[in-house]
Design a protein that fits this description.
Blueprint (H helix, E strand, L loop, with lengths): L3 E3 L29 H34 L1 H28 L14 E7 L6 H9 L7 E7 L6 H12 L2 E6 L5 H9 L6 E5 L4 E2 L3 H10 L5 E10 L6 H23 L10 E5 H6 L9 H11 L3 E12 L5 H21 L8 H8 L4 H22 L12 H24 L1 E3 L3 H9 L1 H18 L7
Parallel strand pairs: 2-3, 2-5, 3-4, 7-9
Antiparallel strand pairs: 1-10, 5-8, 6-9, 7-8
Helix pairs in contact: 1-2, 2-12, 3-4, 7-13, 7-14, 9-10, 10-15, 12-15
GO molecular function, one term: glycosyltransferase activity
Keywords: Glycosyltransferase, Membrane, Transferase, Transmembrane, Transmembrane helix
Protein name: Glycosyltransferase family 2 protein
């Protein structure tokens, strides 16, 4: 089984020597500069061209399907299972090819910062979390606030012991009202530093994570209000489910965040590991009482006209769900959180049109899940069981080489541009990779569909 981790017994490789860029948007060595808007337009045009070619190629399929379902239904089915996914994948692919993240202009920041760790009954893991913070190579002063959200165990005591051992400045605040947002806001009132970072109680920071996260913030334009770190799986050796999630975090989630970061509109500065400008978070009232509190707070920051970026080399490792039930509940919460964000800050209220366009793509995500979960999967079952090719046929095999090329490119980027400089490597996880490619989306789509139904029905919220 595999996991992502530093090489045991070795210090991570030293970071590459930072270079000075003449512009915060242009990397040296490039003879011409494409603006972010131009890159987005090119990516959209490429995605539309790809979709147009797909429509032309698919006309015989639509004709055959229409004999069974009628023309409107045939077009809807093929659009949901082929055209729409193709458009999104093409948009993502060219965006990533055009992504040229500028080097750090500030390589060794020293600005004081505060880390909030919201915790409830986390005595088993909180010591390791605090120790990793204490082992950071960040040169500036760091204060940790443990926001104890009504713990009934020894979370606070264990955190204090770990802080004393690791020489970490720790402040414990207690918030009895259940809900992560309440704990975060109680801690926020104690923050006096310009930057505030949130770290989940089960998340371990790489020793360079803080430095790289703040370097990206201070190397970016002044209106950058938050930067999301890269969160990866630390417990992938547990079972097949965690093996698949390892690849999802390492490839899928990281790729989407890279695309959004390119367009200065990372849609989730996730609570597991992100930095915010304290004044900006305070100005919008802190974290809202929502399942997706990190989603909503990010969208509110974007609404104020700020940029939210992503730093792929600021790496943290988190505990992924180990049971299907826990996984389904987590992804249902994520889906509900996305809807909460759309309701709280609709795309048309975003100050920057590009941010509104990127957030508007989230309206397409439920359609993708409907197409995959309610059309593609049943069609695949019919194909395998009785040879029915109405929805899925041998032409579906053409998707596999494209998928392998895309994920192969993402693996090369992560290996060469992220893990290499950090002294990390990926242990072999071939079976997990294969099942991730072939079956993982089934779980994700059905969990998301459950979340959408729960949101629309107004079901009671579950925090764990």
């Amino acid at each position: 089984m595999t996991a992502l981790h530093p090489r045991r017994g070795d210090d991570p490789a030293p970071p590459p020597t930072p270079r000075t860029s003449p512009s915060p948007h242009r990397a040296p060595g490039h003879r011409f500069y494409l603006s972010v808007t131009v890159k987005f337009v090119l990516s959209v045009l490429f995605a539309l061209s790809w979709t147009g070619a797909s429509v032309w190629i698919s006309l015989p399929w639509i004709t055959d399907l229409s004999r069974l379902t009628g023309d409107p239904a045939a077009w809807i089915i093929v659009s949901l299972v082929a055209f729409l996914p193709g458009f999104v994948v093409a948009l993502l692919s060219l965006s990533l090819l055009l992504d040229r993240q500028p080097p750090f202009r500030v390589s060794n920041p020293v600005t004081p910062l505060t880390i909030i760790v919201a915790a409830r009954n986390e005595q088993d893991g909180i010591r390791e979390t605090i120790r990793c913070i204490g082992g950071s190579d960040y040169a500036g002063p760091v204060t940790v606030i443990l926001a104890d959200n009504g713990s009934e165990d020894a979370t606070a005591r264990f955190a204090e012991l770990a802080a004393a051992e690791a020489d970490v400045a720790l402040l414990v605040v207690r918030e009895p009202a259940p809900g992560k947002s309440h704990a975060l806001n109680t801690a926020l009132r104690q923050v006096t530093t310009p930057y505030v970072i949130t770290v989940d109680a089960d998340t371990l920071l790489h020793r360079e994570a803080l430095r790289r996260l703040i370097s990206r913030l201070e190397s970016s334009p002044a209106d950058t209000v938050a930067v999301a770190g890269a969160v990866l799986v630390r417990n992938s050796r547990v079972n097949l489910l965690t093996r698949m999630q390892e690849w999802d975090y390492y490839l899928g989630i990281a790729a989407v965040k890279r695309m959004q970061g390119l367009y200065r509109s990372t849609l989730v500065a996730q609570g597991a590991f992100s930095v915010y400008r304290t004044a900006n978070v305070t100005a919008i009232g802190g974290w809202p009482d929502a399942i997706g509190e990190d989603i909503v707070v990010t969208w509110k920051l974007l609404e104020q006209g700020g940029r939210v970026l992503f730093e792929p080399t600021a790496v943290a490792f988190t505990e992924a769900p180990t049971t299907v039930l826990h996984f389904m509940r987590q992804r249902a919460r994520w889906a509900r959180g996305m809807f909460e964000g759309l309701r709280a800050v609709p795309p048309w209220r975003q100050k920057h049109r590009l941010a509104g366009t990127i957030s508007g793509i989230d309206f397409l995500i439920p359609l993708l899940d409907i197409g995959y979960g309610l059309i593609w999967v049943p069609g695949l079952v019919l194909f395998v069981a009785v040879g029915n090719t109405a929805v899925v046929s041998v032409w579906a095999l053409a998707v596999l080489p494209i998928t392998l090329v895309i994920y192969g490119s993402l693996r090369a980027f992560q290996s060469n541009r992220v893990f290499g400089p950090l002294g990390l490597h990926v242990r072999r996880n071939r079976f997990g990779y294969l099942t991730f490619l072939l079956g993982y989306q089934v779980l994700c789509s059905y969990a998301s569909l459950v979340g959408y139904v729960q949101f629309l029905a107004g079901s009671a919220r579950r925090w764990k």
